[in-house]
């Protein structure tokens, strides 16, 4: 097995079988190209090469997946999890968690929510490694739709720090099923999927918009050849399930590579869980782990062929914005509130009174129905009806409909009880008139009992007071009837005014009346507004007192004061700003140089293709001279010479740009560490300043612990703190404290005995 100089191609040579005879069509060698080949490199190099960009994409709202594939004993679990006893040998999962929370701490302009889950697929059964009872798998089911794949019932734990996330990972790792066989002392007998869910929100302006992304870190069980591992009993059943699921995975990848109409994702739990990673909305990276020895040549070739097939797959990774209905409702409520504020400001600037745009309460609806009833009885004027907003006009129409409905129900009820009694009552009512009306009285039982007017009858020029609908007595009687509420026995007004104002005049007059109604001392609207103002004033006083008390403990406000008003804070804040600017400039330079490197590589490829094409097309004169052994044999023409010079210059530019890119990348990490140190110094200075401002005699560290509510450490806790500091100093990385603290909490020393499995 040979790795080419480009670092992307592997050639596998096959020995000839002498027993096949002289004619032997056996394959001599196999060359396959990949995105990169790593040999004898550190765990840090593996992470930076394979998983660093995928984690960055998750923080930008894009789904990502990193999974390891290979034969048993090839180092898949070591690549993903690493050695928990050695900080330098930690794997992709601990480094990804450190990367995520480091970026979360640096990006202070956004709010992040991080959750983790850990699932195991053992013998085609789903197990929740973070549940209280991981052996119970009845409640887990894989569900998928057009855009997402989820596991129903899987525990998702919110973590707020790297230490909490690592503690969950170490806890779940202890529950994985392992066994011992000939090729591996700690062979994983199951597939494990550790998932990180990241929710990103803006801090203030667009709280309802969120980016939802997930990172799947998959440690697949290794393929086994039973004639090499010699399993028996339960291990034979485990090996059978492992090989079966990996075979189905290869079938799915082959179908995706061929772009078949049907892809058998549901053949196994593994392929169903990896549906997004293989052909959906995800950025996927595969690590092919090899055991490059002659005894395992067939397994290595199988792994390389599978990796080459996976390299041909295409996914559609996009930024995932939240479609949560709760967030959409929150956005709609905020927009409605802003629109109401705009309307209130417009009404205030135009000189209008208080206009209600909110929905009416039950009490207000009842008052509006009573006002409509009084208007129909003649005791209320048209100008008193609310027309100040479209919502009030619609509510008025609804009140008219309610009153008409009550009258229709009363009429139907009266007809059912007997029309004769109603007719007699109606005749009695008519008999009470003084005869000043128009026409003769109709004494029949039919009709509406309002009299019959002759054709030549005309209305009186000065109707009597008894017949006028707008007389004081009539108004008083109608008002008394109106005060009784919605009575079904109330008769409609006997006369209507023959002259009514135009609609425009009605609206103008209604607006004036409404303004007067608002300023009237006895107005219910004014009383309600005064009550609201009094309640707001009383509540405002209490809120102000409470806010003044809370201000003393508002660290954000005090932190802002420290950065802008205190000399040390201003200096430290300026240092943080300079470090942030330096990091941003380095990232921009890396991006620009990376574009130059890619452009130079494309130029080299294009010129090389042109040169090869030029060499292939040789003029006839050159061919004849070459075949005859003339002096011109092997002489380049002018075009080939120019192309060769251009290729040489492009390669020089490529090497220069690549060297610059490597130097910039090496200087980025120290700049990021300097930025983190500057922020830590700023926070430490603020804590010390806050402790001094509070005027207590405790030291800065003790004061911070008292403010946070921490109790005094006992000797055991003090020893553990010292032990963590010692391990971090040995590791040479101050940020390793979270790793050792999480490993200590999960009790990683209590390892299961070799050969045991957690499932039955």
UniProtKB/TrEMBL annotation:
Residues 453-531 have a biased composition (Low complexity). Belongs to the TRAFAC class myosin-kinesin ATPase superfamily. Kinesin family. GO terms for cellular component: microtubule. GO terms for molecular function: ATP binding; microtubule binding; microtubule motor activity. Residues 569-603 form a coiled coil. It comes from Tetradesmus obliquus (Green alga). This is Kinesin-like protein. The lineage of its organism: Eukaryota, Viridiplantae, Chlorophyta, core chlorophytes, Chlorophyceae. ATP binds at residues 70-77. Pfam families: KIF9 (PF23735), Kinesin (PF00225). GO terms for biological process: microtubule-based movement. Residues 1-313 form the Kinesin motor domain. Residues 450-531 are annotated as: Disordered. Keywords: ATP-binding, Coiled coil, Microtubule, Motor protein, Nucleotide-binding.
């Amino acid at each position: 097995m040979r790795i080419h100089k480009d670092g992307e191609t592997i050639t596998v040579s096959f020995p000839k079988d002498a027993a096949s005879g002289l004619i032997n069509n056996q394959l001599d060698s196999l060359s396959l190209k990949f995105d990169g080949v790593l040999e004898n490199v550190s765990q840090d190099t593996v992470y930076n090469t394979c998983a660093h960009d995928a984690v960055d994409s998750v923080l930008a709202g894009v789904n990502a997946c990193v999974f390891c594939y290979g034969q048993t004993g090839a180092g898949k679990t070591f690549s993903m999890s690493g050695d928990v006893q050695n900080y330098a040998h930690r794997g992709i999962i601990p480094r990804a968690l450190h990367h995520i929370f480091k970026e979360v701490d640096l990006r202070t302009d956004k709010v992040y929510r991080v959750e983790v889950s850990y699932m195991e697929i053992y013998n085609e059964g789903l197990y929740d490694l973070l549940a209280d009872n991981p052996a119970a798998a009845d409640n887990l089911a894989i569900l998928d739709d057009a855009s997402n794949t989820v596991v129903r019932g899987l525990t998702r734990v919110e973590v707020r720090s790297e230490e909490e996330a690592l503690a969950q990972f170490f806890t779940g790792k202890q529950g994985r099923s392992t066994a011992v066989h000939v090729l591996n002392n700690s062979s994983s007998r199951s597939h494990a999927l550790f998932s990180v869910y990241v929710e990103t929100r803006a801090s203030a302006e667009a709280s309802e918009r969120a980016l939802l992304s997930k990172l799947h870190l998959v440690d697949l069980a290794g393929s086994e050849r039973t004639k090499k591992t010699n399993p028996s009993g339960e291990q034979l059943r485990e090996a059978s399930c492992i090989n079966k699921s990996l075979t189905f995975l290869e079938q799915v990848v082959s179908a995706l590579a061929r772009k078949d109409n049907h892809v058998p994702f549901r053949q196994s739990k593994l392929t169903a869980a990896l549906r997004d990673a293989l052909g959906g909305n995800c950025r996927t990276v595969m690590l092919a782990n090899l055991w490059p020895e002659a005894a395992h040549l067939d397994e290595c070739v199988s792994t390389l062929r599978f990796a080459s097939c996976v390299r041909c797959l295409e996914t559609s990774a996009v930024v995932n914005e939240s479609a949560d209905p709760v967030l959409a409702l929150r956005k709609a409520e905020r927009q409605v509130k802003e629109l109401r504020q705009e309307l209130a400001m417009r009404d205030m600037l135009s000189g209008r009174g208080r206009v209600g745009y909110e929905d009416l309460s039950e009490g207000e609806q009842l008052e509006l129905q009573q006002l409509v009833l009084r208007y129909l009885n003649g005791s209320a004027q048209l100008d008193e009806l609310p027309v100040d907003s479209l919502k009030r006009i619609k509510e008025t129409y609804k009140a008219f409909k309610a009153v008409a409905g009550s009258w229709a129900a009363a009429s139907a009820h009266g007809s059912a009880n007997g029309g004769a009694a109603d007719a007699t009552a109606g005749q009695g009512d008519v008999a009470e008139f003084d005869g000043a009306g128009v026409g003769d009285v109709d004494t029949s039982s039919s009709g509406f009992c309002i009299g019959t007017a002759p054709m030549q009858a005309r209305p009186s020029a000065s109707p009597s007071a008894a017949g006028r609908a707008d007389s004081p007595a009539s108004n008083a009687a109608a008002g008394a009837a109106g005060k009784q509420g919605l009575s079904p026995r109330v008769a409609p007004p006997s006369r209507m005014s023959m002259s009514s104002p135009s609609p425009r005049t009605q609206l103008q007059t209604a607006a004036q009346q409404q303004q007067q109604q608002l300023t009237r001392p006895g107005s219910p609207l004014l009383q309600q507004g005064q009550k609201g103002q009094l309640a707001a004033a009383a509540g405002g006083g209490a809120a102000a007192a409470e806010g003044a008390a809370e201000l003393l403990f508002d660290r954000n406000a005090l932190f802002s004061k420290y950065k802008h008003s205190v000399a040390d804070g201003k200096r430290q804040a300026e240092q943080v700003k300079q470090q942030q600017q330096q990091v941003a400039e380095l990232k921009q330079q890396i991006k620009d140089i990376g574009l130059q490197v890619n452009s130079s590589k494309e130029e080299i490829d294009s010129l090389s293709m042109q040169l090869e094409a030029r060499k292939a097309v040789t003029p006839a004169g050159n061919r004849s001279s070459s075949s005859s052994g003339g002096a011109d044999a092997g002489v380049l023409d002018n075009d080939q010479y120019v192309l060769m010079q251009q290729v040489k210059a492009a390669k020089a530019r490529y090497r220069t740009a690549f060297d610059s890119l490597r130097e910039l990348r090496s200087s980025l990490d120290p700049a990021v560490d300097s930025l983190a140190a500057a922020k830590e110094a700023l926070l430490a200075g603020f804590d010390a300043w806050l402790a001094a401002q509070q005027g207590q005699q405790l030291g800065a560290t003790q004061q911070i612990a008292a403010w946070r509510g921490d109790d005094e450490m006992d000797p055991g806790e003090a020893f553990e703190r010292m032990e963590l500091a010692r391990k971090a100093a040995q590791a040479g990385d101050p940020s390793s404290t979270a790793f050792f603290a999480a490993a200590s909490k999960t009790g990683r020393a209590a390892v299961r005995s070799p050969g045991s499995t957690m499932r039955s």
